[in-house]
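Dear colleague,

Thank you for sharing your sequence with our group. We've completed the structure prediction you requested, and as agreed, I am returning the results in plain text so they can be pasted directly into your records. Please verify that the sequence below matches your submission; if there's any discrepancy, let me know and we will rerun it promptly.
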Amino acid sequence: MTRFDLVSHWRIPAPVEPVWAALADPDGWPRWWPHVREVQVLRAGAPDGIGALRRIRWGTLLPYEIVIEVEAIESVRHERLRGRSRGQLHGEGLWLLRAGPGWTDVTYVWRVEPTRSWMRWLAPLLAPLFRWNHAGVMRAGEAGLRRHLAPVSALS
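Please find the predicted structure tokens below.
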């Protein structure tokens, strides 16, 4: 049991356009997502972002960092973003957005496998801790995005 299917739900009190813009710009994540320590562009990709490759260094609630490379593989404006990760975590992530009156529902689905040997060996025992850690990082992302978009939310 080393594969994890992680699902997060956010409701952001802002229109879909600025939510999309924030999520589709990983280079800007460190400004609002507390656990994103650094984003490096390794390959620019197409104008819609497809093919872009970034190295993202994440802090966690536990005493370790995660470094992954994420390649953008799908982008449907205001609806979904898909990326493939490699490095310390190998898998695929999917952002889904759904607009509502004055809010945007965001669902993130990440199917991932750790590649570090200690994580793989201990995954059956530490799975609840890994899930708790991921949930905390995602909660901080939701709170950060809400703060980041508060000026936009106030106008809508």
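Summary note from our side: The chain has a mean pLDDT of 95.

Kind regards,
the structure core
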